[in-house]
Amino acid sequence: MAEDRYVIPPAPQAAIAVQxxxxxxxxxxxxxxxxxxxxxxxEMGQDERAPPFFFAKPADAxxxxxxTVPYPPLTKDLHHEVELVVALKSGGRNISVNKANxxxxxxxxxxxxxxxxxQIASRDIKRPWEIGKAFxxxxxxxxxxxxxxxxxxxxxxxxxxxxxxxxxxxxxxxMIWNVPECISKLSEMVALAAGDIIMTGTPSGVTPISVGDKxxxxxxxxxxxxxxxxxxxx
Length: 234
Ligand code: MN
What we know:
Elements: E1 15-17, E2 24-26, E3 30-34, H1 38-43, E4 53-57, E5 62-64, E6 68-70, E7 78-79, E8 82-88, H2 97-100, E9 104-111, E10 114-115, H3 116-124, H4 130-133, E11 139-141, E12 145-146, H5 147-150, E13 157-162, E14 165-171, H6 179-189, E15 197-199, E16 214-219, E17 223-230
Parallel strand pairs: 3-15, 5-11, 6-17
Antiparallel strand pairs: 1-2, 3-4, 7-10, 8-9, 8-15, 9-12, 13-14, 13-16, 16-17
The chain binds manganese (II) ion.
Manganese (II) ion binds next to loops.
């Protein structure tokens, strides 16, 4: 019996729904692009000319559409970052920009939830970002749409409403490094593989979130995502 091979039960497979089907996309790793929209770089007070960089979240940080995110511990400044999510069906090393789209299964709408106070504190003392970025429930992600159905979006409105009010609004065309360039660059650093997803950076307008807030995100031509911020987990 396969289960007898493990000394403890293996963790459940993290997954994202595929829109309009009963199928799931199994998530291997979550990569995130830092600083990929000019207006967000400006609001964070960073160098506009520096190339984007990558950080990661655990696969089990995924929260599905309609889910509730318990307000995370240790922060007084939880922020939303609405982002285009790219889901890979294949990977490799040193993927060229013109082959990168061939690796893409589909796209979704995600939120890179950020404990901004902890992220900035880590940044300032040159420590890693995990405590600010890679916490439990930090990666809400709506249902994926296959590229075979929607193509490869390069423009279209990306927005987030908090309690009905627009907080973030931008356009995919404002990305400094486009999706194929992000895939190509990341594949120089690690071997990408099927199941990896990439959160591709956020437009400006990031703001603090409170318990009870309803976050509604939409990317034109891609889809929607709604999550609610709940009380802290006990
Ligand atoms: Mn982000």
